């Protein structure tokens, strides 16, 4: 008898976790062994129970999903993390995979896609929602990626960029990411310089253009 695929769900919306738990309970070879609403707790729970698959929402309060993926991956390079997000822009897929995720699906994906992704990751494969993967291939071949400017940001800069354009103040970001106020302010200056904008409002317009708001 094959061992079950153990799964930890990480999402700050209880109703989403409940929906996933109900969906996955229909599969005898998959078992949800833990769930949490925050990245910080996800890291601790991962160390404690070492689930086979982590389904990680990118849009988490506090540490944030991308930072949580990086932290778990830093602890265990073999961790099988499936990024789960409302965003279907290829840039988010790239960032998640760079952080250490092995797969990426969106919240608009069919339930069967989520299940297939979990099984594929458990088998040691990588998996990206087919529709997004197709767009990524087209952009790579044609060189038409509209978000190439944002790709110049480092992982930390991208985290801070997302928080800034979604209305967080420098002080709030410093508290969320456990960084010094001056450190965040310096990052903000670097981000504006790289993106060739002068104000946060201009940066927000850029984020809207590239579809990375509410992340």
From TrEMBL:
Question: Which Gene Ontology biological process is one annotated for this entry?
Answer: phosphorelay signal transduction system
Can the keyword DNA-binding be found in this entry's annotation?
Answer: yes
Native source organism of the sequence: Candidatus Methylospira mobilis
User: Per its UniProt record, what InterPro entries does this chain match?
Assistant: CheY-like_superfamily, NreC/VraR/RcsB-like_REC, Sig_transdc_resp-reg_C-effctor, Sig_transdc_resp-reg_receiver, Tscrpt_reg_LuxR_C, WalR-like
Can you say what this protein is called?
Response regulator transcription factor
Q: Which SUPFAM superfamilies match?
A: C-terminal effector domain of the bipartite response regulators, CheY-like
Domain HTH luxR-type intervals = 146-211
Give this protein's Gene Ontology molecular function annotations: DNA binding
Per UniProt, which keywords does this protein have? DNA-binding, Phosphoprotein
Modification type 4-aspartylphosphate: residues: 57
Residues forming the Response regulatory domain are: 6-122
Q: Which Pfam families match?
A: GerE, Response_reg
Q: What is the lineage of its organism?
A: Bacteria, Pseudomonadati, Pseudomonadota, Gammaproteobacteria, Methylococcales
């Amino acid at each position: 008898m094959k061992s079950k695929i153990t799964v930890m769900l990480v999402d700050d919306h209880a109703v989403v976790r409940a929906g996933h738990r109900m969906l996955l309970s229909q599969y005898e070879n998959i078992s949800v062994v833990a769930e949490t609403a925050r990245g910080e707790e996800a890291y601790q729970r991962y160390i404690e129970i070492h689930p086979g698959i982590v389904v990680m929402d990118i849009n988490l309060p506090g540490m944030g999903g991308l930072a949580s993926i990086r932290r778990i991956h830093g602890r265990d390079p073999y961790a099988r993390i499936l990024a789960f997000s409302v965003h279907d822009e290829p840039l988010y897929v790239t960032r998640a995979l760079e952080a250490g995720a092995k797969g990426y699906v969106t919240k608009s994906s069919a339930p069967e896609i989520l299940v297939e992704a979990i099984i594929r990751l458990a088998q040691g494969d990588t998996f990206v929602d087919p529709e997004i993967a197709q767009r990524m291939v087209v952009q790579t071949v044609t060189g038409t990626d509209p978000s190439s400017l944002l790709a110049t940001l480092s992982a930390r800069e991208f985290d801070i960029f997302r928080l800034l354009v979604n209305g967080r103040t420098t002080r709030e970001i410093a508290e969320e990411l456990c960084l010094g106020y001056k450190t965040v302010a310096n990052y903000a200056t670097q981000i504006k310089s790289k993106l060739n904008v002068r104000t946060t409002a201009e940066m927000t317009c850029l984020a809207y253009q590239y579809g990375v708001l509410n992340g």
